Amino acid sequence: MSADLQPRLDKARQFLLSNRFAEALPLYQRLLHQRPGDAVLWFECGNAASGLQQMDLADRAWTRALELAPGNSELTGLIGHQYQSLRQPDRARDCFSKAAAADPRGINPRISLAVLAEQNHCLEEARSAVGQCLKIDPHDEQARYFNAVLDRRENSLDQAERELRDLLASEPKHPFVRYAARYELANILDRTERYDEAMNSLTEAKRIVRTLTDTQLLIKAYDQAAASARAFTRNLPKTILRTWAVSFPEQVRQPKVSLAFLGGHPRSGTTLLEQVLDAHPAVAALDEPPAFLKLLQPEFHRSKVLSAGRLNALRQLYLQALSVELGPAAAGKVWVDKNPSPTGRLPLWLRVFPELRVLIALRDPRDVLLSCYFQNIPLNTTNVNFLSLERLAKHYADLMDIWLMVRGWEGFAWIETRYEDVIAGVEKEGTRVTGFLGLAWHEQQARFYEKSKRKQLYSPTYQDVTQPVYSRSVGRWRAYAKYLEPVQPALERYRLAFGYD
């Protein structure tokens, strides 16, 4: 890179890393006029275009990068991860396969192929990719860890436990493996009723995670946002929807679509209910699409002007993103956005979509907290709360307090559904919830797990909904009662409010 271009490239990359895509993209386009053969520039230009939802441009840029550097395994793998984050698994798989072919001894592209295959329930394909990694390097920590994951997926719990204990005894250096192996071991110990050992393994895993990032900084950011959301909701009168309807009446809302939001606290049965609904031929359900948090919420807060025209522009932005993910087959169906964490932003949803139908999944708060505590999910300002039961109790209160306020508003359609009721009678409770969407129960919904096996899911519990309903998770908290005792007082209000005596 010549001296005159380097400052402009540095500036473009600074914008890109700061998610200031509108400022980054024109800089990259000007740079490419001068360096059209630079594959890395094309890749980064594609990332900027993707951030602006200009997907045709992003795809052209990434395609050009692949054409210019077909032998660059690392770059090809990075493009694969971009497609994976955009929920295009076929394109991601193609890139990972090309990256593996370009580097016969490359571990990372083969692990990426294994992860993608496992998430799509193609366990033989995942096993083959892991086997290639172990053939290249029998001591590779990622491959050894993922081999144990596949054993656990196939219910070979003894074998998986031995592999995990051997891996941990070797004191792995890979940061992810160090804590992920302990999370995986904890779930096996829980399944085999060694509850104290499971909690010890979780405690150590979370201790390691805390050493890898500034968790206090994440907690501070979360607490500020949660306090702001709570205060905003508390200051709105119960008649606010009627006020909003005057300034944004039904006849001017565009575009029109039959839309429902499925929320509640994470691990309250939202994924199970989403799959039961998605099995209906007239429903198109989405598993935690990023459109609300990445597009709608930031654009909503960019300006205080909320004219009918701007609200319609926000609707268009959000619905277009869902449409891209759903595809043309979803036209005319009821769209269900399943997204637990944005439950705390319900006032925003209802400001833009006053006609929104809201489904809230409930579950015994003690089971919710315990289940969240067992989850190994990427750390961010929300998931940092999953590192302790005390923070989980606060997160539960932050989310469900907003729901308790909003459900008292006048003039919108909502329903609560209990996980325990779905487990006790999937057709009975499913009929009630399906009816709330204006539809009759369909026989395919009773076999929801058959469709779940054929689609990519993004919830951390994607594997649980590929089988018929089971009851072993109901009342699971009792085995860990002594660990939950310190947070029981904080949950009492919600147990009573939601009928969990």
Account of the 3D structure:
The protein is 60% helix and 5% strand. It has 501 residues and is mainly alpha-helical. Strands 2-3-1-4-5 form a five-stranded parallel sheet, with helices on both faces. Helix 3 (39-51) runs antiparallel to helix 4, helix 7 (108-119) packs antiparallel against helix 8 (123-136) and helix 13 packs parallel to helix 20. The longest helix has 20 residues, at 215-234. The radius of gyration is 24 Å and the shape is globular. The model has no long low-confidence stretch (mean pLDDT 93).
Specify Rg, calculated over alpha carbons.
Answer: 24 Å
**Span between termini:** 67 Å
Label the overall shape.
Answer: globular
* Total of helices: 25
CATH class of the domain at 216-497: Alpha Beta
Number of strands: 5
CATH superfamily of the domain at 216-497: P-loop containing nucleotide triphosphate hydrolases
Briefly note the CATH topology name of the domain at 216-497.
Rossmann fold
What percentage of amino acids are in beta strands? 5-15%
